Every structure is written in structure tokens, then in C-alpha cells.
From TrEMBL:
This is Integrase core domain protein. It comes from the Bacteria. Pfam families: Mu-transpos_C_2. Residues 118-308 form the Integrase catalytic domain. PANTHER family: INTEGRASE PROTEIN, TRANSPOSASE RV3428C-RELATED. InterPro entries: Integrase_cat-core, IstA-like_C. One of its GO terms (biological process) is DNA integration. PROSITE patterns: INTEGRASE.
Amino acid sequence: MEFWTEVRRQVLVEGLSKRGAVKKYKIGWHTLDKILSLEEPPGYQQKQARPKPKIEAFLPIIAEILTADQKAPRKQRHSAKRIFERLRDEHEFTGGYTIVKDAVREWKHSQKEVFLPLTHRPGEAQMDWGFAKVSIRGHTEPVKVAIFVLTLPYSGAVFCQVFHRECTESFQEGHARAFEFFGGVPWRISYDNSKVAIAKILGSRDRKLTREFLRLQSHYLFAEHFCLVRRPNEKGHVERLVEYARGNFLVPVPVVDSLEELNEKLLAQCHADLEKQSRGKSTNKRLLLEEERSAFLGLPARAFEARRITQAAVSSQSLVRFDRNSYSVPTKYAHRKVTVVAAVDEVRFVFGDRLIARHRRCWEKEQFFYQPIHYLRLLERKPGGLDFAKPVDQWQLPKCFGILRRRLEASDEKHGTRFYIRVLRLLERRSLSQLTDAVEYALDIDVIDPSSIRVILEHRQERPAELFSLDGRPQLKTFNVETTDVSAYAALLSAR
């Protein structure tokens, strides 16, 4: 370029003749005319493709192999080297590996899909899952968690929460929290073909939806849009923001006491992200979100309950196995079918229309969770198992209960343990603090039989009768109620 500029300047500005330029710079006349007519070198321009006589006849075979590869497993597809070997061994190809590699690269480049930029209207949302590692104190290794991400492409707002696993209850809970964060319900949400939402794919766009997804949709009344199979580009905005949330909110690897603590931090980061301005937007995300809310559906007055319902059988040990863990229920429901209502943080067990047990949800596996109260009914019939029963092995009771047991067993060697268990069964209707007060009082007055402790407990829960007040009832002040003469009832005695 420097040479080009120098020649042009010398001839067109300094007055150097063309003959002098040809002689000085040792260039031809045609080259000088090109320099003077163009402001910059045009570069090499190939007028037609170079012939490839050795590979030309084999291009259809290469295309056939690569087309068939699209249906093969990803790890068992042809490399350029393998195609070269097959052409050499099976088709008597005499060319080199390089021209085969170039042909494969050119074919793959020609097959790459081109996408249309999409416009996003206010009130449209996209949802997707991602995965990351989180360090939870008390765990020796980082825990893999599922990242729920729901975005609004129009405003660029993003909502992110983490759950132990991608499942029905976390899917529903994520939506409920997202709608609360955005202050409304998007009128349409795009999804991939997750089994949480889709029971069966019936066609290109037809889907049979799961009952729990329909329950979520019926509550919030949004419209659904499912992408074509293996076409995540239809919701490309959230695909990018899953990476954005993971790279900005979860780097470095968070170290927390629980996922609830991490979700509070993520919620704060989502609020802070609203102050940023998206590329190509005239203002920040928060102002655009306020504008977009006019297209939202309103939040229902009644809160949505994110849960999954299933049926399970109670074992002979009064345990219900759910989601790879075992939870206890009262022993009178052993060998029966119960309904399991599973939320993100709690598992409830229902028999008929009665709630019979509730436990904190565990997301690990092969764990056992006992409530000692569930086994007291059985222990009353089998008091000899009190010191060996696993459900009560780690039960930490106040000191007064140990004193009560020793005194009951000392006063009645045969039935003392059963009497002690009968006292513990009062926990089926009262709290531990209430029973502790009653036991301490019974020990003070030296009345330790179960019936007396039950009376003390019930008496302490009775509320004294309150006097009827006329305050605020002026209409009742005009009535005069005379005092009853009880001596009139003596006539009944004399008559008999």
C-alpha cells in the first residue's frame, strides 16, 4: 500500500511523467494505469474456481457419508481421516488427505443452518433449566443443583433460582417465585420439550401436557409455546441467559449453608441486574419492565401451591418410601395406601382427608426419617422395645422425663415402662413444652400416674371464663335482668 500511494503521489501530484515512473519504479504500463485509476490495490480476484480433478468424482460419496452420519451417534461419526481411508480402500482414491479434509470442511460449512432474528413482544417469556455446582457447608464435595431461569426478552429482565433437582415441584415453585418477582404473569411462555410439562409428543407442534403443568397453567392462565424437537433456537434468549446467570451469579462457586440462603442472594442479584442496560435498548431493564407490565396478566388472589401428588404404600415398619427416601407415619396406618403431597421443602402424608404426618423434604437418597411420636402407640403394646427402637434411639427429651421413668419403674416394676409410654403418648395431642410443664408439676407434688398427669395437662390448658362486657353494646344497657331466687326450687323437693 505504501508503494501504491508513493507512485500515485509522484505522478498525480509531483508531476512525474508516466515514462519516468515506469523507468523509476520498474513497473509495466498496464500496472501503472491500474495504480493511477484505483485508490488502493484491488487484491487477487479469482475469476473461476480451480479445478479439482482428483476429488471431483468423489464429492457425491463424501456427501453421502456425511449425510448418513447425521443419524448416527455423535461419538460414532466419520472424521475426515476416516473418510479418506474409506475412499482409498473402498473406492480406489489416489489423492491426498488434505484435499479430502478441505472437501469435508466445505460440505459441513455449506450445511450450517442460518437463523432469522426474532422480534419479541411485551409480555412474552422464555424458560429453561441449567446446572451448576454449589458448595454447601457440611458436605464434603460440591453439590450439583438445577438452575431455574425465566426471562423476558423485551425488557431483558432475568429471574434465577436454584433447586436440588429438576422436577415437577421445583418447576412449579420456580414459576410462582418468578411471577412474584416480575409483578405479573407473562401472557405467553416458551419451553423446550421437558417431561415435567409434556406427557407425550403427538406431532410437530402437538403436545399432550401433564396434569401438573395444566394445573399451573389453569391457575395463572398463561399460554404455552413448545419449541420443535432439537430446535432450542426458538427460545435462544433464555439459552444465552442461562450461561449469563451461571457465569455472573454463580462464579466463583458459592459457599453457603443452604440453598435457601443462596436463593436469597440470587434474588438480590436479579434485582441489581435490573439496573443494567441491555445492548440495543434505550434505557435500563427496570424501566422497560415497568413498561412491559401493562401486557402482563394479573397475579391471582390465591397463592399457588407448588406440589406433586402420588400414591404410596406404608410398610410393616410404618415407613413410606418416596423419592428414594423413607419417612415415618403413625403405626395405625401400616399396610395401608396413603397420598404423598411433595413440595420443595416439605413432604406431607394424607389418609382419606386427614393429614397424618409431615416431614422436611430430603433431596439425598437412602435416608430414613422417623418421628418418635408415630411409634408410641405400638410401643405401649410392646414396652420392652423402648430401649431398642430405632425411632426413639436419638430422641432427646427434657431431664424431667428420665426422672419420671425411673420413678414409675421403681413404683411398678411390671407396668412402669408402659405407664411412662402412656405419658409420652400425650404428645400426640399436646406440645412437648406443655407436657414438660405438666410432668415437672406432677413430680413436684409427687403425683406421677399417667391419669393424673393427663388431668394436670388438660387443666393447665383450660381458659377461665371471661365476664361478659357491655362495652360497645349500648342497646343491651336498657335491659334489666333480675337476680334469680333459688329458694323457689325448694318447692320441688317438698312436692316429692
